[in-house]
């Protein structure tokens, strides 16, 4: 049959990008094309990466959480229209072991992340707003200072030499000043943002939830108010995980999740188990049924996380008897 030859349509290959992030460089593996490239971890390098994959249909970009070094790439690629998933390094390491990638180099890590993206399809998420990123940094700094203060107090209690005790007390005063300054800065930034200020007001209205715990929830669970009860319990690591095999029914236990948020809920749960009427009744009922105190407190922590999520989602303060 004679006539015009059909026009050739360019078919864009669907690919998955795995990015191993370091302070100065991004190692990128393009799967399944098998292409590897390295770019600088700055705006210029990211523009070069974007140009390099312009002829591909990028289904997902996967990188590990690295404190602050992945943030520029996450924000730039998200703003450029890419779907970006940031995964826990422990998860990607276990996946590497599962697929037999025992060696560890930047190139291998990037390849493993790309294959993980195709195999597991982790959820893509936008970067946190910059104000929340700054709050997270300030909160981590405050938590580290509190840990150092505890260590210095323990040293003072175990020391007998006067010059050492004087030096430790000097360090203690400096740490207490640093903690007070960081807490004041955290509050200043929350008060300056109406949405965060409202969230803080809601959380601190819950009996037992002190300002430090409220800040931990605000900075540590940016999804607060948008999750189901099961999702918030799982994210914080307070959902009992099954441990069954065959006829055996193992003991349910919590695992995973965001440990720093879980730790921040421990003292509020203890306070709520004594002073919050509903949660006190819940705690007493668990103890009466034979549950160990630690298990009962963990259940109260889960109730607090769910309550905080519900109140923020409904944009209302806690009240003893809600209609």
Q: Compute the separation of the termini in Å.
A: 77 Å
Shape summary: globular
Beta-sheet strand percentage? 5-15%
Instruction: Give the helix proportion (percent range).
Output: 55-70%
Whole-number count of domains: 3
**How would a crystallographer describe the biggest sheet?**
5 strands, mixed
Q: Give the spatial strand order of the biggest sheet.
A: 3-2-1-4-5
Low-pLDDT sequence parts: 1-10
Write the SSE topology.
Elements: E1 13-21, E2 25-31, E3 35-40, H1 43-52, E4 56-64, H2 71-79, E5 84-87, H3 89-98, H4 106-120, H5 130-158, H6 162-192, H7 194-204, H8 211-220, H9 229-236, E6 244-245, E7 248-249, H10 259-275, H11 277-288, H12 293-314
Parallel strand pairs: 1-4, 4-5
Antiparallel strand pairs: 1-2, 2-3, 6-7
Task: Outline the structure in words.
The protein is α/β, with parallel strands linked by helices and 323 residues long. The chain has 3 domains: 13-120, 2-Layer Sandwich (Nucleotidyltransferase, domain 5), CATH 3.30.420.140; 129-192; 194-323, no CATH class. The chain is 57% helix and 12% strand. The protein contains 12 helices and 7 strands. The protein has helices at residues 43-52, 71-79, 89-98, 106-120, 130-158, 162-192, 194-204, 211-220, 229-236, 259-275, 277-288, 293-314, and strands at 13-21, 25-31, 35-40, 56-64, 84-87, 244-245, 248-249. It has a 5-stranded mixed β-sheet. Helix 7 packs across helix 8 (211-220) and helix 10 crosses helix 11. The chain starts with 12 loop residues before the first strand and ends in a 9-residue tail after the last helix. Mean pLDDT is 91; it is low at 1-10.
